[in-house]
Amino acid sequence: MVDLYGQYVKIKPEIDGEMQRVIESTAFINGPAVREFQEALQSFLGVRHVIPCGNGTDALQIALMSLDLKPGDEVITPDFTFVATVEVVALLGLKPVFVDVDPDTFLMRPEAFEAAITPRTRAVIPVHLFGQCCDMHSVLSVARKHNLFVIEDVAQATGAEYTFPDGRKAKAGTMGDIGCTSFFPSKNLGCYGDGGAIMTNDDALAEKLRSIANHGMKVRYYHDRIGINSRLDTLQAAILKVKLRYLNAYNTARQNAAAFYDASLNDLPALSVPARAPWSDHIFHQYTLKVSDNKRDKLKEYLEKKGIPSMIYYPVPLHLQKAYSWLGYRQGEFPVTEKLCSVVLSLPMHTELDEEQLQYISSAIREFFQ
């Protein structure tokens, strides 16, 4: 599904040099590379503050902790997303409230978001799934109307760009109150271990977020609030500093691979290639098909026999997961998500795909449907 080694080989001297500098400095925690990467990412995203942290799940937890929510407060999230989006809500004693998604883009529907708001609702987490942004103009309009916090989950869309109706552009993660991302190795911007970051344009909120991520401290050994220990280590920051310079090129390579898949597969009646939202570019963290006629699992098995990996993101809706049965949802409440979980299939998508590989994958899929 990814070729991290092939990507590494192309930038090996830069990566090795940065790692060696960290090792020789022995500044393994909060070394200079952390601030250098932080400042570079701020510039890339056009955001005032980036707070590096341990991983994307921590980023979401720290973001929620910074908002002073109370147990039982409700946080709205899409039902079709990775579990990290909602598990942090539950861990903090808050109540996840799921909403259905658009059947074509897989993104949270703003009208479903607004319909789910109750007097207990305090925040919403729009997820920029698979590489493109939610309809943030509508999400922000609804949130402002109801005085809700907006925490963007950008784990799959770092570098994606949103266009507002007035033509103004903004990077994913810079539009809400807080943005949260992951640098898991397979992400569009990935390190060689775990890593994450939090983004905000609010100076006071940034100071609070930094404190929470550092045991609740602003001054060493003076704990102003309850916090956690979540740091991006210096080695990972050094790697990310190099890879950030290539992120636009990486995203373009993914878009080119997606265009090849589109041209090769879009005439197959049993397949639906990924839809593009009109307000966002798509940087294809995943290239996710919809496979009709109950052929998804058979196609996956066929591809495996051909040596082609594929993945199902996600096989079970969150509202039907055992861990969230306490919320009382039932089968049939979110029909779009339930349907998607039975038809989606993601193909290999990464920066090192060449035309021969793309042709082999596409030809195998066409052969299956003959």
Indicate the structural class. alpha/beta
- Beta strands, count: 14
- Characterize the overall form: globular
Taking all residues together, what is the mean pLDDT?
98
Explain what this protein looks like in three dimensions.
- The protein has 370 residues and is an alpha/beta fold.
- The chain has two domains: 4-99 and 107-244, 3-Layer(aba) Sandwich (Aspartate Aminotransferase, domain 2); 247-369, Aspartate Aminotransferase, domain 1 (Alpha-Beta Complex), CATH 3.90.1150.10.
- Helices cover 39% and strands 15% of the residues.
- It contains 13 helices and 14 strands.
- It has a seven-stranded mixed sheet, sandwiched between helices. Strands 12-13-14 form a three-stranded antiparallel sheet. Strands 6-7 form a two-stranded antiparallel sheet.
- α2 packs antiparallel against α9 (234-244), α4 crosses α5 and α10 (247-265) runs parallel beside α13 (355-369).
- The two termini are 25 Å apart.
- The mean pLDDT is 98.
Concise structural overview:
With 370 residues, the chain is of the alpha/beta class.
Give me the secondary-structure topology.
Elements: H1 4-10, H2 12-25, H3 32-45, E1 49-53, H4 56-65, E2 74-78, H5 84-91, E3 95-99, H6 110-115, E4 121-124, H7 136-146, E5 149-153, E6 161-163, E7 169-171, E8 178-182, E9 196-200, H8 203-213, E10 217-219, E11 222-223, H9 234-244, H10 247-265, E12 271-272, E13 287-291, H11 296-305, H12 335-343, E14 344-347, H13 355-369
Parallel strand pairs: 2-3, 2-4, 4-5, 5-8
Antiparallel strand pairs: 1-9, 6-7, 8-9, 10-11, 12-13, 13-14
